[in-house]
Fold:
Amino acid sequence: MNKYNLCIVIMLLISGGLLWGDAGMDKNLSVVKTDIHNQVFKHLQLCYECEFAPITKMQMEPDGTYDQKELEAEWAHKYDIYLLYNGDIPAGFCVVNCQSMIDGDTSTHDIAEFYITPIYRHSGYGTWFAHYIFKLYPGRWEVRQLPELGKTVRNFWISAIKSIDHKNFTEITDHATWHGFIQRFDIL
Structure:
């Protein structure tokens, strides 16, 4: 077993949670609940929108931002927003929809948006963050991916789901209300 693989299986107890990481990973991760007005979230959201623009065809506004008025109106009421930090450096965000995006079921949570900054991808941060979020809301979950994102994002989510205590995993492709992949499962 090489050094990288050995470090992947090392678990550290930090702030009451388990961290999984590689040899280069700073093990000072924290999660902060925030709202749509947080400047760090707005900056990360801009990065997220830039990455999705080729798929969504969303154009920038003259001031170099994307129009977020519709999203902000929705997120003000039925979404929870979390920031991931590595020390004091923002590493990503997650927007949790407090109901199903597929059928409106209020007992189901949904990952509306999930973003890890490029420098922290493939380091264990995304899986750790996904697990952290799932554990905040035990019960029924949905995770969706656009088909244009290809296998990479879908494989990340399937791996993250299958590496946490769960049951009733199903995956469907395309639904009357969503074109793409949907994973449904229960967090224990």
